[in-house]
């Protein structure tokens, strides 16, 4: 699906966006008042031209004091009739945010319907950076498409294909280690988690850029998670095609970085352990003890806590070249959803400057994140009796924190470490975010990256 603005042609119809209480444009005439238009959030008023056609439209943004509650209100403009529309923005509405809303609102997942978006198109609003916004939207569309695709068509093989296609598009190099070669290359936990699947586990390694600070992004690529031998109940398994949302977000972020030019002056590396957590005679078992790439042993007290196992080997590989910034992105814990819901992923970082920069950027670009602590008094919870680490501490408390502490053990050696526990799914449709797969954290990282990378 294309994430581009329409050309500014002479026949483009004006679309006036209005705050509640703002005066109507002179060209609107008396029709909006007669039709009862009040500029409520998302309210649309089509303006007739007197001869059976349209001379423009009005879109309500709601009250200024409450508009912040709803991100990307302007995305509702995609319900306008088919045609090209030229947005006219009011004072106080950021042009880049408005532009992104208009593009995100056009997203449709149509792979299995044989159709494409054929609705309203928009000229880039005055003052917005069209190239920058189009690159962000293209990265987000890639993330959404990957997450929305069911596991029957998005297993480790297809995720590798998507990574190869992106690498070719942006001029990056890619190497993939697959199957038994994972054991030879010392990625034992990636192999253990994925060996029960018909599609062999693999580690995808993408590199872009040759000079500058090294930024390594590790994305969890569990293409489907049955829970393993600790099998999930049906209600919990239904959305597990999205368990590769960390990998999808990492690839979408890489596309954004390359498309916006933010990758210039950086060495970027993206690592994706791509597996299915399946059930078969050779599946890894509860209370197995696995030896990680780092040499730490891990007691498996729940085969459904597999994401941190595959991430651990990939994080260890990442630290071996001491990146300036190491980021992990993962649909990791239900505990994060209980604490913060689906819209607000927690992030973990020990570096106050990095945490502040990311939190500020998240607020600025409306890509919400919330800092949570690496709470060291909980370290004993991840230390079982017979191994170095426990992948699923008993008790059920602080699950997102203990998972982050587990991952931090394997991130030692990076200049700065940042972990995001994302959800990757929009459960209820909202402006610019239809129900389904969604990127989380990528736009905030993109905006903050100059400070994050030092």
TrEMBL record:
GO terms for molecular function: manganese ion binding; metalloaminopeptidase activity. Keywords: Aminopeptidase, Hydrolase, Manganese, Protease. PANTHER family: LEUCINE AMINOPEPTIDASE-RELATED, PEPTIDASE B. It comes from the Bacteria. One of its GO terms (cellular component) is cytoplasm. This is Leucyl aminopeptidase family protein. Belongs to the peptidase M17 family. One of its GO terms (biological process) is proteolysis. Residues 302-309 form the Cytosol aminopeptidase domain. InterPro entries: Leucine_aapep/pepB (IPR011356), Macro_dom-like (IPR043472), Peptidase_M17_C (IPR000819), Peptidase_M17_N_1 (IPR048816).
């Amino acid at each position: 699906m294309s994430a581009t603005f329409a050309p500014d042609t002479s026949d483009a119809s004006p679309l006036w966006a209005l705050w509640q209480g703002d005066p109507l444009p002179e060209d609107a005439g008396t029709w909006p008042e007669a039709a009862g238009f009040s500029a409520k959030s998302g309210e649309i008023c089509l303006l007739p031209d007197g001869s059976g056609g349209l001379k423009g439209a009005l879109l309500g943004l709601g009250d200024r004091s409450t508009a912040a509650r709803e991100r990307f209100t302007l995305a509702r403009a995609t319900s306008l009739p088919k045609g090209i529309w030229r947005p006219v923005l009011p004072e106080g509405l950021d042009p880049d945010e408005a532009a992104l809303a208009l593009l995100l609102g056009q997203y449709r997942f149509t792979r299995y319907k044989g159709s494409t978006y054929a609705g309203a198109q928009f000229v880039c609003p005055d003052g917005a950076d069209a190239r920058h916004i189009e690159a962000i939207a293209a990265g987000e569309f890639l993330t959404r498409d990957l997450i929305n695709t069911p596991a029957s068509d998005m297993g480790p093989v297809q995720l590798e294909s998507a990574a190869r296609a992106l690498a070719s598009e942006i001029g990056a190099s890619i190497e993939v280690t697959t199957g038994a070669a994972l054991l030879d290359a010392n990625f034992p936990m990636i192999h253990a988690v994925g060996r029960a699947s018909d599609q062999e586990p693999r580690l995808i390694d993408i590199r872009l850029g040759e000079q500058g600070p090294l930024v390594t992004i590790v994305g969890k690529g569990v293409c489907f998670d049955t829970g393993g031998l600790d099998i999930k109940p049906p209600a919990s398994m239904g959305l597990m095609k999205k368990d590769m949302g960390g990998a999808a977000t990492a690839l979408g972020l890489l596309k954004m970085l390359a498309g916006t030019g933010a990758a210039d002056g950086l060495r970027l590396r993206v690592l994706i352990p791509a597996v299915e957590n399946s059930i078969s005679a050779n599946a890894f078992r509860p209370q197995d003890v696995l030896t990680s790439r780092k040499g730490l042993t891990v007691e498996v007290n729940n085969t459904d806590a597999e994401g941190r196992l595959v991430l651990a080997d990939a994080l260890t590989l990442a630290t071996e070249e001491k990146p300036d910034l190491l980021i992990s992105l993962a649909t990791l814990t239900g505990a994060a959803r209980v604490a913060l819901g689906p819209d607000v992923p927690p992030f973990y970082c020990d570096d106050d400057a990095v945490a502040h920069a990311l939190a500020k950027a998240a607020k600025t670009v409306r890509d919400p994140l919330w800092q949570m602590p690496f709470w060291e008094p909980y370290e004993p919870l991840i230390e079982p009796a017979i191994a170095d680490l426990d992948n699923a501490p008993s008790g059920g408390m602080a699950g997102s924190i203990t998972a982050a502490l587990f991952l931090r053990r394997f991130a030692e050696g990076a200049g700065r470490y940042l972990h995001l526990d994302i959800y990757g799914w929009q459960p209820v449709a909202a402006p610019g975010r239809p129900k389904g797969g969604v990127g989380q954290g990528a736009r905030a990282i993109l905006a903050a990256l100059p400070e994050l990378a030092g």
